[in-house]
Structures are given as C-alpha cells and as structure tokens.
Amino acid sequence: MNEKVFKFELENTFKVMIYNFRITSPESKNFLLKLEADGEHSFFDLHTIIQKSVGFEMHQLASFFIPDQNGRKQKEVSMLDLGLNGGIYNIMQKTKLSDLIQSKPRHFIYTFDFISDRSFYIELTGIVMEKNLREPFITLMQGEAPVQVLGYEPPVTDSAKLQEEEVLMDFGILEDYTELYGEMEDF
After folding, report:
1. Which one, of 29, 33, 40, lies nearest residue 55 by Cα?
2. What's the whole-model pTM score?
3. Domain boundaries along the sequence of the chain
4. 62-80: per-residue pLDDT in tens?
5. Where are the strands (E) in 57-136, listed by range?
6. What number does CATH give the domain 3-151?
7. Residue 101: CA count within 13 A, CB half-sphere
C-alpha cells in the first residue's frame, strides 16, 4: 500500500471517544435510560437529551455533579454561571464531556429538582472509539421516569381537554338537564 494513501486514510478516519451512559432513578426502580454521546458534546447537550427523553420542561434548573470516592458532590457543572471572584466554575454550555470524563468507571449525579434534592444517577458504562456523532442519542428507555417536580401536576393536554368538552357536548351538564326537563323519577 502506498504510504500517501495510507496517511490519507488515517486522516479521514478520525475517530473520537463515544461515551455510553446508563441513567437510573432511586425513586423509580423500573426506570432505565441508556444513551451515547460524543466526547465533543457539551454537558448541555447531555442535559437536553435527558430532559427531552423523559418529558421534563426545559426551564427548570439542573446541574451535573461529579462526586468524590465517598459519594459527596465534589465538582458542579451548572446551567448558570455562578462563579464568584474569578473562581473556576463549569458551565454546561461551555464544558465538553471529554473535559471532565477521562476514564471509567465514572459516576455522575444529575440533579433536576433542587428544592426536593432529587436526582438521576449516571454511570459511564463504556468508552469506544468511533466516528463522531452529530448529537447524543437514546439507545434504550424503559420504565417510567419520576415527575420533574414533586407536588406538581402536569398540565392537561389539549387532547384531554377536547375529550372532556366532547363528553359535555354529548350529555350536557346534569344541572342544565334538570333545569330544562325537571327531575328524573326513580323506577
């Protein structure tokens, strides 16, 4: 094989690290989410795919925490720049996965409800060298994710409202019926 051709092939088959993640919830034992992300993706990309896949609203604050050996939150990757006095602070949009993930096993805590201190546990299950991914993607989702905020009822969907209106149109409100036709007799 010609040396120039070999060099050209090596340059055009540039491979990057692809991270395999396993996400679980201590609240919902049957919930499991697996995804893959390129090392060049940001923590915000990871945040976005998690939020979309479990149906969470994007306006809620969330952070990734890298724990120490004892499980205590050591380093935070936040949505907001809270760095004070020029301190080092990791922001989701600016921090690539490869900046903080060097090897496995690696565990993260993804806190999505700060008020009730509720989180997902993220485990790095593998690193493979592949061609880069355009965006992170879900490889497996099973079970039901916990609600995003405790005590919060998700808004009624348009289809549920329409279905309720159809029932009312078919039968009307009982008070209206009795007003028009009088009381019904029991048989």
Report:
1. 33
2. 0.69
3. 3-151
4. 999 988 888 788 888 998 8
5. 63-67, 73-78, 90-91, 106-113, 118-130
6. 3.10.290.30
7. 30
